[in-house]
Amino acid sequence: MMQNKGFLKTIGITGGIGAGKSQVLDYIEKKYNCIVLKADLIANQMKVPGCDVYQKLVALLGQNILDAQGGIDNQKMAGFLFSDKLLLKKTEEIIHPAVKQFILKQIECEKKRNHIDFLFVEAALLLEEHYDEILDEIWYIYANCETRRTRLKESRGYADDRITKIMSEQLPEKVFRHTCKITIDNSGEFDTTIQQIDQILGDYLCQK
C-alpha cells in the first residue's frame, strides 16, 4: 500500500514499573514500520562531554559525579541526588526539557522524511512532562499489581518493600486511565497483548 503523504502517527508509551513497556515496544519495533525513542537513552547521549546538558549538570553538581575518563557516572549522580529533592528537581529541569526538545525535532524530521508509519516515545515522566501536548496520543500499558511485583522480583531481584516504595511514588492508575487514549492490558499471556496491539495499529494502517 502506498503511504499517504504526511501520514505519521506519534504515540507515547507509559505505565507503572513492571507493566512491561519495554516488552511491548520490542514487539512493536520488530513488527511495524516505526521508530522508538526512549527518553532515558536520549538523556544518556546528552550527558557526554561537550554537550550542553553535560556542562550544565557538572556546573550544578560538581566534579564528584564524573568517572575517571571525565564522563558522568550515572550511579554517582543518582547517589548524589538521592537525599536532596531540590537538587533532583534542578537536575530534572536541565535534562527533561532538553530531551523533549530533541524528541520534537525528531518528530519534525520524520514527518519531512515521510518513510515510517509510527513514531513511539517512551519516557518515565510522559504525563508529568505533558507529552500529550506534542504527541497524537498516549498509550497506558497496564498490568495488575500482583503481576508487576512478580516480574520485578524475577527480572530485577527487587524486594517487596522496594517495590512498594517505587509504586507509591508513581502516578495512580486512575490518572493513567483518565489521561491516556488507549489502555493495553499486559497482565496475562503476551499473545493476548499482541492481539490488542495488532488490532489498534492495524486499524490505523487501514486509515492511510
Q: Kindly provide the radius of gyration, computed on alpha-carbon positions and rounded to a whole number of angstroms.
A: 19 Å
For the sheet with most strands, the description reads:
5 strands, parallel
Q: pLDDT under 50 segments (min length 5)?
A: none
Order of helices and strands: EHEHHHHEEHHHEH
Q: CATH superfamily name of the domain at 9-33 and 116-202?
A: P-loop containing nucleotide triphosphate hydrolases
Average per-residue pLDDT, rounded, comes to 94
Strand order of the largest sheet: 2-3-1-4-5
Spatial shape = globular
Query: What is the third-level CATH name, the topology of the domain at 9-33 and 116-202?
Result: Rossmann fold
Spatial separation of the terminal alpha carbons: 9 Å
CATH class value of the domain at 9-33 and 116-202: Alpha Beta
Name of the CATH architecture of the domain at 9-33 and 116-202:
3-Layer(aba) Sandwich
Structure characterization notes:
This protein has a domain at 9-33 and 116-202: P-loop containing nucleotide triphosphate hydrolases (Rossmann fold, 3-Layer(aba) Sandwich). Helices cover 53% and strands 12% of the residues. It has 9 helices and 5 strands, in the order E-H-E-H-H-H-H-E-E-H-H-H-E-H. Strands 2-3-1-4-5 form a 5-stranded parallel β-sheet, with helices on both faces. It is globular and about 55 Å long.
What's the arrangement of secondary structure elements?
Layout: E1 9-14, H1 21-31, E2 34-38, H2 39-46, H3 52-61, H4 74-81, H5 85-113, E3 118-122, E4 137-142, H6 145-156, H7 160-168, H8 173-179, E5 182-185, H9 190-206
Parallel strand pairs: 1-3, 1-4, 2-3, 4-5
Helix pairs in contact: 2-5, 3-5
